Amino acid sequence: MKDGAKAGLTRRQTLGAAGVAGAGLIFAGVGGKLAGVGGDEDEASAAAAAKTCLRLMPEQEEGPFYVDLGKVRADVVEGQEGVPLDLRVRVIDHDRCVPVANAAVDIWQCNAYGVYSDESSENTVDQTYLRGIQFTDSEGWAELKTIYPGHYEGRATHIHVKVHIGGKRTKKTYHGGHVCHTGQMLFDESVTDAVYATAPYSSSTVTRVPNSQDRVYSQQGGRRSMPKLSGSVGSGYTAKIALGVDPQSTPAGVGM
């Protein structure tokens, strides 16, 4: 697979490049002051990050399980068992250093048993669990309630994401526009260890692929696609990630 990330940094990106420290994204703000997003950071940190330049996120493979349902909803669980995950995705225009409002953040993932909905190969046609779209607010944030993802053969633990711009939107549906980012969110191994030690994840007999051996992590910039996690197995987790995108572009697909 080829890495679909755009090479090189603009001057503004270089001045405000975002890096990864541990499992959390760190944002270099105006004047070089660092502000963390996620964990125990408050809304003031989130507001500060709105004025932050981010490197363009690497494009990653869409994978075989995308379905264009256009289903707008905040809660995608549909009764699936698993550890609750509050997923908060922020979309930032990487060049203009401003939040992108009204972007459609589209996620899909497997359940705790490693199975995707609405796939004939998975015997789940017409099921729609763990798929959904939410729109970013004026600060660039979209929030979806899901569960911690399971895993399946050949891949590390992940959640897929697309960011759509434009398109036709109603209260329950979204279609059209263009995709300015396709990526995957990968997860901290220690958190995954803790989650997978509990039911129903613990019933899986499929060998788990660690991040270090996963093609998206190692070949497609996955190190930069790890949300900041806070919480616990008992109470559930919050995952925060910021995506630097070019809202005007339609990047070439990776591995297509």
Give your account of this protein's structure.
- The protein is mainly beta.
- The protein has a single domain (55-245), classed as Protocatechuate 3,4-Dioxygenase, subunit A (Sandwich), CATH 2.60.130.10.
- Helices cover 10% and strands 30% of the residues.
- The chain contains 4 helices and 14 strands.
- It has helices at residues 11-15, 43-49, 189-196, 215-219, and strands at 19-21, 24-28, 34-36, 84-93, 98-99, 104-108, 131-135, 141-147, 158-165, 168-169, 174-175, 178-186, 228-232, 236-245.
- Strand 13 (228-232) and strand 14 (236-245) form a beta hairpin.
- The radius of gyration is 17 Å and the shape is globular.
- It starts with 10 loop residues before the first helix and ends in an 11-residue tail after the last strand.
- The model is unreliable at 1-41 (pLDDT under 50).
Structural class: mainly beta
Low confidence ranges: 1-41
Look at the structure and give the mean pLDDT.
Answer: 84
Global shape:
globular
In short:
The chain has helices at 11-15, 43-49, 189-196, 215-219; strands at residues 19-21, 24-28, 34-36, 84-93, 98-99, 104-108, 131-135, 141-147, 158-165, 168-169, 174-175, 178-186, 228-232, 236-245.
